[in-house]
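Morning run. Coffee first, then this:
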Amino acid sequence: MGIKDWPAEDRPREKLLHKGAGALTDAELLAIFLRTGTQGKSAVDLARELLNDFGSLKALLEADQARFCLANGLGTAKYAQLQAVLEMARRHFEEILQRGDALTSPDITRAYLSAQLRGYSYEVFACLFLDNQHRVLQFEELFRGTIDGASVYPREVAKKALSHNAAAVIFAHNHPSGINEPSQADRQITDKLKQALALFDIRVLDHFIVGDGVPYSFAEHGLV
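And here it is:
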């Protein structure tokens, strides 16, 4: 039975319009992107098959062109379409955070940092520099490392914060493994950075780890 024959409340597009995109599963969201299925498979069936094949939605979104186009139901046109969607999302959140508005939504901050850091195969340590009203002054990638980690130097971070005349900062780094739980090293460097910046009255508001799923927030877990 095709999706058009499903009850209206079960159809991905109608469900999105009625309940919002957050109510959809990964397969349902992907099915809307795919639009059609293949012979004998609905778009949702195909989406589930693709998610199983790639292992996760993240892996599918980050697949290179060759790997992506080999998959059943995908191809060059879909790859180009997906890259355009991802870039529009990145630019959307970048524009929001560069308007000079105060950061009031953790969800927007998470989405922006995810868009910036999620695609790397090595660790990247970055920082959002904020003024005393928590308005964004600058986003910068400060350190890059291997898949095992990045060397982070408190002195260099302090110099950057002072050069931007920042009153507060939000740190973020990615875990290429996809595991978004903090390591002991992550906790230690966060404490060191907090202590170093406190000497200049610069507050550390949060530290996000970008991996699979929702980025981990140090502040929400009482670690900053």
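The CA atoms of residues 76 and 108 lie 30 Å apart. Good start to the day.
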